[in-house]
Amino acid sequence: MPRISVNKQLYGRVLRIIRICAYLPVFYFIWKGHLELAAINVSIILITAWYLYFRVRQQDIEKPYYQLWLSFVEGIFAFAVMLCIFIRDSLIEDHEPEKMLAIGCVLFLTRVVSRTLYLLSMLREGKPPLTSGFWSRVSTLSINATMLVYVLNLEHYRLIFMGLSMLLMFASGVSFGYRYYRDPMHRKPLSISNQLTMSRIVLTPVFLWVFFYDNNLNYQDNSIIFKILALVMIVAFMVTDFLDGYLARKWGEVSTLGKYLDPFSDKISNMTVFLCFLASGYAPVWMVALIYFREASIETLRTLAAGEGVTMPARRSGKWKTAIQGAGILTILVGALPLADLIPYWNEIWEYLPYSVMGIITLVTVASGIDYFISGRDVLKRYV
């Protein structure tokens, strides 16, 4: 590699590390209300992103695995900042968090997950992955700018920037799909089991719309029709979660993509539901934060293992965790139905039921995460 490329590569890595480090103080500044300091850090993130994408053009000279790692970490941090803002808004009295922000968080996390899965799939198969196109880079800059607007709490521009970011994410997805299906080297059919898994990701924003259909954070006030529809969608998520693995094994369609896509789709759909519960007062912030920390940590561990050529299979504790999360979600959604006329003292029971169920879910989720870290200690030793 020419010396100038090596220098640019090193320069680009330093900038990306600075960009990642700039995320860390943002969380503290948001919670402490230091909006100006948080905005300075987000501005640094935005400027370095523009410089890396359009001046250094790091993706053209960076090694694919480094590109995968750095992009994944940046994406998770950016999602965490937007999630932090959503939680902050949820805690403010007489302030309803925007549904647009919640939908944007889900779409952005889906984008990060999909891109990571694609890169992993192509690199594991020894194929050169498609580089980020113009619309992808512009959408990333738009997301950073939207983050800045939300950090500063500019009420009149929040919806405008979030809407623009969503449109650009859609444009980047269409652009990528066009380039992907034009290139026979990358194109391959998606199995039935993987299509079922993808359906959970696609339908997750629809569940979000159904849950908040009445534009009221109090889910109890929602129409009975949409309460039943939300319940049906959760049952569909659970059925497809069972079928995708069963059909993959039965039809011999078990793939590396499916092994990563299945847990990713579970986390996207379940975390969206937990965010809905948080907004409706069915779960406290610390429980949802612990669940998110566990899920993000385990996916980071899986990505580290993939970088070493190791596939971490689903553990029994993980399957129990998924089953208990699904059962808990169903319990809360069923409990939100008008049951007071059918079950004596139901209103008194309901006062404690959601927090109790979420407490059990949180305990099992954290215990499962500890089990995964113990089983993955050999992978961690290579990095620590």
Overview features:
14 helices, 2 domains, 384 residues, 0% strand, Four Helix Bundle (Hemerythrin (Met), subunit A), mainly alpha, globular, single chain
Question: Overview of this structure, please?
Answer:
There is one protein chain. With 384 residues, the protein is mainly α. The chain is globular, with a radius of gyration of 21 Å. Helix 1 packs parallel to helix 3 (64-91), helix 4 (99-124) runs antiparallel to helix 7 and helix 7 packs parallel to helix 9. The protein has helices spanning 3-32, 35-56, 64-91, 99-124, 134-151, 155-182, 192-211, 224-250, 256-280, 285-307, 316-335, 346-350, 353-375, 377-381. It folds into two domains: 1-187; 189-384, Four Helix Bundle (Hemerythrin (Met), subunit A) (Up-down Bundle). It contains 14 helices and no strands. The mean pLDDT is 81.
What's the domain count?
2
> Count of helical segments?
14
Strand content: under 5%
Fraction of residues in helices?
A: over 70%
- The CATH architecture designation of the largest domain is Up-down Bundle
Structural class: mainly alpha
Evaluate the radius of gyration.
21 Å
Q: Could you describe the largest sheet, including whether it forms a barrel?
A: none
Which blocks of ≥5 consecutive residues have pLDDT under 50? none
Mean pLDDT metric: 81
CATH class identity of the largest domain: Mainly Alpha
- Spell the H/E element sequence: HHHHHHHHHHHHHH
